[in-house]
Amino acid sequence: MTQVTNALWLTVSPHLKKFDQRLLCQLARYTAIRRWEYHQTSDEPCCLDTPVKMLHDYVGRCDRTEQTSLTATPKLHLLGHGLSGVIGLIYARRFPHRVKSLTLLSVGASPAANWHSQYHGLRQMLPCSRDIILAQMVRLLFGPQGHSLTRALMQVLERDLDTGLSLHSLADRTEIAAGGITPPLLICFGGQDGIVDGSMQDRWQPFLKPDDRLWRCPQGHHFFHFDHPKQVANTIRDYWRSAVLESPLNLIQQ
User: Fold this and answer.
1) What's the chain's average pLDDT?
2) Which class for 253: exposed (0-12), middle (13-18), buried (19 or more C-beta within 10 A)?
3) What tens digit of pLDDT does each residue of 155-173 get?
4) Cα–Cα distance between 240 and 235 in angstroms, integer?
5) What order of strands is seen across the sheet that includes strand 33-37?
6) pTM (2 decimals)?
7) What is the number of alpha carbons within 13 Å of residue 36 lying toward its C-beta?
8) 43 pLDDT exceeds 80?
9) Which of 106, 88, 83 is nearest to 98 (CA)?
10) Percentages helix, strand, coil for the chain, rounded to the nearest 5?
11) Which strand (E) or helix (H) includes residue 216?
């Protein structure tokens, strides 16, 4: 039997998508899940409207495809980490009728306050080299690491800063309004996150609906879903089952 695929993982940071793969493999045990990717080209401005529009176009194409083979068009369960989650948040605000639920990983109540903004803030404050700031960012994002792994992670972060979608620069910073969404919302954090810390996490509370959920991975850092993929996948699956019981998502029984 063909399985309805209405869980969609969002990726707008191609250099960081390797940290998503373990979680996606875990989620694939329970349901078919697609990945939508946006790659900003060198000729495009850093603008959130472009990926949101392209996501909307993609969802529309999927709707038309599924309507030709299935009896109904399901809403989407959107998921995303960091800036990719921010794209999902903006999409869910603009098109709530298209979203069954939204799962955010490492997105604070002030959505634009991400590791890019932290990096540029440190560059402005500290009279030191880019490498020193990047090494500090590795510690904040991943926790203490050995020299070789720190250097490798610094290169990944540097590529994301130089060629990926970004809301910030040394000259300007983007602001995104705080607030929730109409569809069900699951917000997941790392308990040891050095970027989206406990105070930024707690500021979500005034915007949560009764069925929304905020969950912390106690030992996780900013990319907690990489180090704890099974725990995160189980949390997402349980939320889909409890808060979105009417969802047509086909979960594979274990």
Assistant:
1) 86
2) exposed
3) 999 999 888 787 755 555 6
4) 9
5) 33-37, 7-11, 76-81, 99-105, 185-190, 213-217
6) 0.88
7) 26
8) no
9) 88
10) 45, 15, 40
11) strand 213-217
